[in-house]
Amino acid sequence: MPGIKDAKCVLVLGATSGIGRALALAIHNLDSQPTVIVSGRRQERLNELAREGERIRTARVDINTTEGNLKQFVEDTVAKYPDLDAVIFSSGIQHIFDFSKPETIDLSTEFQDEISTNYISIFKLIVMFLPHFLKLSEKGRPSFIVPISSGLSIVPAATVPNYSATKAALHSLSITLRLQLSKTKVQVIEILPPLVESELHDHQGKTPALSKVWMPLKEFTDRAIEGLIRGDPNVPVGSAAQQFDQFEKGKQEAAQKFYERMLSLS
C-alpha cells in the first residue's frame, strides 16, 4: 500500500512547533527525499525550520483567516507546487474549560478559536485541496490527507471538553472521508497521538506536571513515521493505540456497512 514514502511534495500545516515541526523534519529526511512545505502563523519560526533542510520551503498562513484567504492560500500553494500530493493537518490549540464555573468560559474567543483551528478550518482546507488530489488520482498518482486527531477523540478528557470534542469530530470525519474516497487514490491516514511533549500546554501552566507523564516527542515521531511509511489508515501511538484497540476495532467496517446500506436506498 502506498505510504508517505511515495509522496513527492508534503505540506505540513502547523509546523512551527511540536508534532508538526518534528514530522516535517522526519519526512524531509526520508530516503525518498520529498519536498516539504512548512506552514504556520510565525514566519520567523518557519524561516528557522527552513534552515534545517535543503528541500524545506515555507508558506505562511493563519488557518483561522477568512474562507477567501484560505482558498487563495490553497490556489497559490498548488500553483507553486504542482507536485503537492500530501497534506498533514497538525494545527491545534487547547483550552481548559470548567463547566462548574460557567462564568469563566470564554465563548467569544477561546471557544471559537479552538473549534475553528482544530476542526472547521481543517474541514474547509480538505475540501479546497481535494480537487487537486482527485486530479492526481485520475492520473494514477496516490495522494495523502493526514489529519492529526488525538487519543482524546476516543476517550475524552473532562478538563479539555471542547478540545476533546473537536478531535472526536476530526476522527469521525476521517472515517467518512476514507469511505467516500475509497474508489480513488486519495488515502486518508489519521494519526492519533497520546499526550506528547509539546508547547500546546504552556499557556495552561500545566507543562511541568504533564512533562512527567507525556511521551517524548522523538519517540512519538519515530512511531508515527513508521505508520505513515506503511500507509496505515490509522496510526494510533502509545496509550492512544491501547484505546483504539479497546474501543475502535470494527468501527470503520461498521461505518462501511452503514454507508453501503444508505447508498442502496438512494
UniProtKB/TrEMBL annotation:
Question: PROSITE patterns, alphabetically?
Answer: ADH_SHORT
Q: Which InterPro entries match?
A: NAD(P)-bd_dom_sf (IPR036291), Sc_DH/Rdtase_CS (IPR020904), SDR_fam (IPR002347)
Annotated GO molecular function terms are: oxidoreductase activity
Matches recorded under Pfam families: adh_short
Keywords, sorted A to Z: NADP, Oxidoreductase
SUPFAM superfamilies (UniProt xref): NAD(P)-binding Rossmann-fold domains
| Gene3D superfamilies per the UniProt record, alphabetical | NAD(P)-binding Rossmann-like Domain
Entry similarity comment: Belongs to the short-chain dehydrogenases/reductases (SDR) family.
What name is this protein filed under? NAD(P)-binding protein
- Organism for this UniProt entry: Pycnoporus cinnabarinus
The organism's lineage is: Eukaryota, Fungi, Dikarya, Basidiomycota, Agaricomycotina
